[in-house]
Amino acid sequence: MSSPRGQFSSKTGFILAASGSAVGLGNIWGFPTNAAENGGGAFVLIYFVMAFCLAYPALMAELIIGRHTKSNMVSALQKISTGDIAKNVGKLTGFYGVIIATLILSFYSIVAGWMLAFFLEPLSTVTGLAEISIWLTEFSGTRNIIFSAVFMVLTTAVISAGVEQGIEKWSCRLMPSMLLLMACLIVYVMFQDGAIEGLKVYLLPDFRQIGDPQLIASAMGQAFFSLSLGVGTMLIYGSYLSPDENLPAMGAIVTIVDSSIAFLAGLLVLPALFVAQQQGVTIYNEAGNLIAGPDLIFQTLPTLFHSMGAIGIPIALVFFCLMTIAALTSSISMLEVPVSYTIENHGASRHTAAWLIGIVVFVLSGLIALNFDRLFNFVVTLTTEYSQPLLGLMLCIFTTWVWHRDKMLTEIRSGYPQVEQSLFWKIWPGYVRFCCPALILIMFIQGVLN
Ligand code: PHE
């Protein structure tokens, strides 16, 4: 039996849940790593431009469609379409979104599993279980599979509890704890030798790099991934939002929270890298670039924590706890995409749908973990670099070319009666109709050619 649709009980509940979806490994790992790889401050600057000029308008498209249709992406795009062709394209786009969300979760749960393993490592070190510590931190198929399974159980348990009792309740608990942990770590790192040098690399833009197509493409990909766009996550969260809420304001708050936390994560990770250098850790690779990617999180920072002596143990624990929490509030939003589709379009109960899809995702993660070298990067590139921007483009097209402008206006007006006099209404529809698709397409093609 399909259960009645859930709804966020409050504005704060929605903001924390949607920000929880947005703030994840993409912010705390992806953003600082990308900044380290792409000229520090130059990347930060372009990222902010992308987040507010491209990702925010696309986020608004998802929230508005979601709240209007009160359904998952597959049905939503059909509902706003008139004519068979548009309906069929809508259905296919929706399916594509559901599949991509599922695939993102399959690789995301492996990485989140690493965070869980590294979170447990300081505990096993303290209790003298040296062999377990080594197993937890060494790359192996078994470890990857076991921890992605544990992570998927946590994710599925939250989703199976429903919108208010699962997503909202846990986002409201986890998001503030995450912020607190992050603030404590930033304060600690800032007082260490070397931190200021890291700050300079992070904040001073190298203007020569600003026009680099690679940097621009990375910043766009990062902004889309970070705001959880294209795959119907924000659409489904929007569908659980009350009609009284002001959508442009909600979207703006989520974008601001997401970008601010990415920015804060940079204040933590890049200075920490230079603190590590002071402790004798190598932070530049052979090519003379700052170490980024997995090595930064799983080698450079752990080496720093070890070199700190006793204080390094709680610091490592807090850092990886922060990572695990951030990953969990995002993974629940990914799982909600296929689960809401299965509940609404196939009449399954939430409990059955959640556990069934949880198992499917786990099997996919297992396949990726067992063929890591062949599949991992392939799935990441396919989903985040190619599919997310293209799906974002489709959503912009559906909102402004396929959907009726008056219906869209009526939807925004509910919760924001003066919208027609606002700057938002003067700019946004035309912008999403012409500029966003063109910009996404140009940058997408440039990224592919590079
Ligand atoms: N925004 C999340 C992050 O930054 C990732 C995500 C992508 C979540 C797509 C949901 C959908 O980590």
How would you characterize this protein structure?
The chain has helices at about 10-20, 25-35, 40-70, 75-80, 85-125, 130-135, 140-160, 165-190, 195-205, 215-225, 235-240, 245-280, 295-305, 310-345, 350-370, 370-400, 405-415, 425-450. The longest helix has about 45 residues, at about 85-125. Helices cover about 80% and strands about 0% of the residues. It starts with 10 loop residues before the first helix and ends with a helix. With about 450 residues, the protein is mostly helical. The structure holds phenylalanine. Phenylalanine binds near residues 24, 27 and 233. The site of phenylalanine has 15 residues, from helix 1, helix 2, helix 10 and helix 14.
Question: How would you summarize this macromolecular structure in one to three sentences?
Answer:
The protein has 450 residues and is mostly helical.
Tell me the strand percentage band. Answer: under 5%
Unreliable residue stretches: none
Number of strands: 0
Specify the number of helices.
18
Structural class call reads mainly alpha
Over the alpha carbons, how many angstroms does the gyration radius reach? 21 Å
Bound ligands:
phenylalanine
Shape: globular
Succession of helices and strands: HHHHHHHHHHHHHHHHHH
**Average pLDDT level:** 93
Span of the ends, CA to CA = 49 Å
The percent of residues in helical segments reads: over 70%
Largest sheet: none
